[in-house]
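Each record in this resource describes a single protein on a pair of labelled lines. An example record follows, reproduced without changes.
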Amino acid sequence: MLLDDSGEIKAVKLDPNLVTSDNAVIVLDEYHDTCWVWVGRNVAMPTRMHALRMSKSVQKSGHKVGTTTIGMALTNIVEINEKSDTDPDVAASIFKFRDALKSKWSYEDQILAFDESRAATGGSPLTRRAEPPTTLTAETVTPSIKTQSTKTAPPPPPPRATAAPSVSRAQPASEKIDRNAEQKLAFLLLSTVKHADLFYTERFTRDGKQGVKIEAPGVVVFEAVIDGSALRINPPNFGGSEAASRIKSEYEAWTSK
């Protein structure tokens, strides 16, 4: 179990009942060469970010169970954010994740889960691995988006410079609107930086409009949505705390200029 307050990792027995809206769960799955990161819809943003950092760490180095290291150098990390379960790709990932947990599991060291039907005959479950590897272990986080490693292609050679006639073109109104709103968003982030030691941001799209959620643990939680040239902030008082009032005042001073 990965406790958000202390950052301690403690492996727990694989249990599909841990996959709830209140938990974040990391599952190291050697059957599917995947590190699954489940983030329930009620999990706070700081916890989600902590879980993602820890999942990337265990993906590289694995997690030790007894004398065995599980999940070292798994190829894929699949983050499943339950809040986005209406997205077809996220819904598909949820189905695959829950399906991966379904099996008649046996256990080694009380934690390491393996499927007898897929294990080679003879020897300990830890030494008789068939291909692909046959172990699962889970960690829960008490605190979707799919990411995969990709190779970067070499950049194309620069194009030859060619003279082009100077053309003056009126800027579309939509570009001006976007730029004004983006400037306001930049002022908002700057104001938050000045009055919060630690904060998290998360981009989202709602009803076709771009937005950002900003959370400073114990200080403020609010959303800013770009609506034409306006930046709609909810709640309008930024949460009402003393620190929120300072952020709001700083933001309004910037935008008034």
